[in-house]
Design a protein that fits this description.
heterodimer, A: about 260 residues, alpha+beta, five-stranded antiparallel β-sheet, elongated, B: about 170 residues, mainly alpha, about 0% strand
Chain lengths: ~260, ~170
């Protein structure tokens, strides 16, 4: 190595210094890896699936862009209508469809003017008059390959707590989703339409006494892992909160909830 | 099942590569595009491409070289898509002044800008990514011998520039 080589090396270093790595985002890279799959092929697939379902089953399937499913009943449509616009979202209430269910718990979704989607969960313990205004997903979250949030909860008469976890896997190959409950048990469910899922997670001891941030795994039909995402679902300020089994004990994560109608 | 496990393992390898070598990928992309935002976007797109097509990776080259090819292609696409000419990319690259803003770097930048693209990319991958000849060859789709010759030509040209500046 000559002096000239050393000097050349130094000059090249001056020209383009090593940048810091503070803008690194693996999550964004993964999202891009999944996002480009969406395109005409996905739209074509959704259109074909919707058409086949309508023709062969004769079901009244509603399609709102990429959202497909049975039309939501009037109380759910009203729930979406009651979403507080001051929160920054305007759900297309009339386009709401059923996208997933777990037993008697049903998840409804609709598009919104902001280009994302809003959710309403229908739980058996929710009084008919108690609309929840829905939960809308900011664009940043909607772009991730896997999204999830606790969107409902109820105490179970001293026998524990039930959390309703809902979300979406944005991967056309995904068929199931897997994650763990607050005490580490593995949960797995089939996806509904448009990649949505909903689960009732029962915890015998009430609220978890620690943060609950499970890793969600998207699975293909053959069990192949398509992606993973760790998502904080509940954050507990202190152990005192674990004593209370009320739904409001949790500070739930990432989506934006509307207010109840008056 | 075996294939899915392999794809899963590759995803983990790509993630490790991203986490350990991000700055180097960004540095090369910056040298190619000459713009920080474009470079960052190119790195993310390049890794996105690699993640998406990882099932097609057949081990014909080291995984790192395969990912480098993806990031370099994304950077070149980005540089072309931008209004700036490719040769202007290096002109716009940031310069660490460190109290001596004037000096050979200006001439060196100009000399880099007029190098043939293959010489420039080879030089960037060797110097800014610290890749060996085999990896550079795999990343650019040429032979290791070509890398050696190309790098030698680029160095000769740049050394000449430095000598001219010094005299």
């Amino acid at each position: 190595v000559t002096d000239q080589d050393t000097r050349l090396s130094q000059e090249l270093d001056r020209l383009v210094p090593l940048p810091d790595g503070s803008d690194a985002s693996w999550t964004d890279a993964v999202a891009r890896g999944h996002r480009r799959r969406r395109g005409w092929t996905l739209r074509f697939t959704v259109a074909v699936v919707a058409a086949v379902v309508v023709v062969t089953a004769g079901l009244a399937v509603a399609a709102s862009g990429w959202l497909i499913g049975e039309p939501a009943p009037p109380p759910v449509v009203q729930d979406f209508r009651d979403y507080t616009p001051q929160l920054g979202f305007h759900p297309d209430a009339g386009k709401a469809v059923l996208v997933a269910h777990d037993g008697v718990i049903k998840l409804y979704a609709t598009t919104n003017r902001e280009g994302t989607y809003c959710l309403v969960v229908d739980e058996p313990w929710k009084p008919p008059s108690a609309g929840d205004g829905g939960t809308c997903v900011p664009k940043m979250w909607a772009n991730y390959p896997i999204t999830a949030s606790v969107i409902g909860a109820a105490g179970d008469q001293g026998r524990g707590q039930t959390e309703v976890v809902a979300g979406r896997v944005d991967d056309r190959d995904a068929r199931r989703v897997r994650f763990s409950d607050p005490v580490g048990n593995t949960l797995e469910r089939s996806l509904g339409t448009s990649g949505f899922f909903v689960l009732a997670v029962h915890t015998a001891s009430g609220c978890p006494d620690h943060d609950w941030a499970p890793t969600f795994t998207a699975l293909a039909a053959g069990g192949e892992v398509l992606g993973r995402e760790q998502i904080p679902l509940t954050r507990i300020k202190g152990r005192a909160l674990a004593v209370s089994a009320a739904a409001a004990s949790h500070r739930t994560a990432p989506m934006t909830s509307g207010t109840s109608r008056s | 099942v075996t294939e899915s496990k392999a794809a899963d393992a590759r995803l983990a390898e790509i993630e490790l590569l991203y986490r350990t070598r991000f700055q180097h990928f960004l540095r090369v992309a910056l040298a190619i595009t000459g713009d920080y935002e474009q470079a960052l976007d190119a790195v993310q797109e390049g890794f996105g491409d690699a993640i998406r097509s990882r099932r097609r990776y057949r081990g014909e080259a080291p995984l790192e070289a395969w990912v480098w090819r993806s990031v370099v292609n994304a950077s070149r696409d980005s540089a072309r898509a931008g209004r700036r000419r490719d040769t202007a990319a290096v002109e716009a690259a940031p310069v660490s002044t460190n109290g001596h803003a004037d000096g050979p770097s200006e001439e060196l930048r100009a000399a880099l800008a007029v190098l043939p693209e293959r010489q420039r990319l080879t030089l960037f991958l060797r110097h800014y990514a610290d890749l060996d000849y085999q990896s550079i060859a795999a990343a650019l789709g040429v032979s290791a011998g070509t890398v050696s010759a190309t790098l030698s030509q680029a160095h000769a040209r740049l050394r000449q520039t430095l000598e001219e500046v010094s005299t």
